[in-house]
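Both lines are given unchanged directly below:

***
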Amino acid sequence: MAKITLAVIVGNRDFFPDCLVTEGRDDVLALLKEMSIEPVILGENDTKLGAVETWEHAKRCAELFRANRERIAGILVTLPNFGDEKGVAETIKLSGLDVPVLVQAYPDRLDRLNVEYRRDAFCGKISVCNNLVQYGIPFSLSEFHTVHPHSKSFRQDLAEFVGVCRVVKGMRNARLGAIGARPTAFNTVRYSEKILQAAGISVSTIDLSELIGAANALSDKDSLVRAKLEEIRSYAGCGGVPEKSLSLMAKMGVVISDWMEQNDLDATAIQCWTAIQRNYGVNVCALMSIMSEKLMPSACEVDVTGAASMYALQLASGTPSALVDWNNNYGDDPNKCVLFHCGNWPKSLLVDPQMKPADILATSLGAQCTYGALAGRTPAGPMTFARITTDDPAGEILCYVGEGQFTDDPLDTFGACAVVEIPEMQELMQFICENGFEHHVAMNASRTARILAEAFETYLDWDVYHHQA
C-alpha cells in the first residue's frame, strides 16, 4: 500500500506552558515517522510553536493544507493542552478538506496538576468535539478519552484511523469493471449503478464477447501471452491441466489486464456462469485469484457490489480479499458455517491451492471446458466479513460488517472452502435474510470490522450494521 499522508493540527491555548506544546508536537512527529506516515504540519516558526490557536493561525494552517490537498488522506488533531476549540474547527473548515479526522488529547499526571505542567486536555477535547459537531465536521475518537501518543493503545487507534482514511479515499474514487452480463439466474446480484455513482463509485462495462474476440486474436507466441502463461504456471499447482486450457487462460488474462489498465480500474466482476465456459472453453477462477492476490479484487457472477466489498476490505487491511458464498451449516453448531466457491479465492487464503476443473459446472458442461478453478482450504486464523449493497427503492447504500474466526474443523468437500465461527451467527443470518442481502459476502484474513464500520457510517454516510457478540 502507498504511504499515507496526514495533516496535523497541534492545538494550543497560550496561558498553558509552552513546553507542553513543543513536547506534544515532537511526540506526534516521532510516532508518524515510526509508522511511515507523512505529515503536513506547520513549521515551528510559522506560528507560535507551530500550533493553532488564533484566527490568523487557522488561516495559515488551512492554506498549507489546501496546498497539499491532493496528498492528504486524513487529519490528526493533537491536544497537548486544552487547545483552542475554534482554532481547530476553523482550520478544517477553511481548508475545505473532506477527509476523516482523529482527535487525540494528552492525559494529565496526578503529580503534575500544578500551574507549570497541567494540561486540561481532558476538558479541552470535549470543547473541540463540541465545535466540530457545530461545524458539521465528522470525526473519530481514540479508544480512551485521553491517551499519550506513544502508548500501545494510541498506536492501535492511529493504525485503525489510517485504515479508515484508506477506505474513505478509496471508496470515494473507486473504479469498478463489469465484464459481461449478469447471469439471468442470479437476480441476487442486481444493483444500481446510479446509487454507486452518487457515492463516487464508477462502473465501466464491457461485453464478454469483446474480450473473447480479443483473446482469440492473440497468438500463443505473443510475448505478453507467454509471460502470463508463466505467471499462471508458477502461481498454483496445475499438473493435469491441459496446455490448451492454460493458453486460453493466459490470453484472457492479457486482455483483461489491458482493459483494466486502459480504464484505471481498481476491481472487476466477471460473467463466469456459464457463458465463458460454453463460448471460450475455460474457467477464469485462477485469473480472478491472481488479480485478487495482486490487490486487484475480482468477483464472480458480475457481482459488482461484491467486488466493491472486496475492495473495501482490502483497503482496510492491505491484504487480499475473496468473495464467497454463505454456503452450508456446519453440523449442529449454530455459530459455525461453511464458506465455499468454485475456486477464485486469492492463494494467500488457501493452503497448497491446486488448479482443477470447477466440480459443479463440470457435471453439466464437462471437465474439458471448466479447467481453471483453484481447490484448497483456508487455514485457521482471524476473519472479517463485509457486504455492500444498494437499496434501490430507498436510494441508499446498505452494508454489514463483522468478525469471526477461520477454524481447522474437519471438512470433506471440494473447491475453495473454509469453516468459520461467528459469535451469534444465527442473529446475523436473520439480519441478512430480513434485509434482502445477497448470498455472497466478502472475506479477509484480518480484524478490520471496526475500521469499515467507522469509514462507512461516519464518513461515507452509509447505513451500516456492525455485527458484534
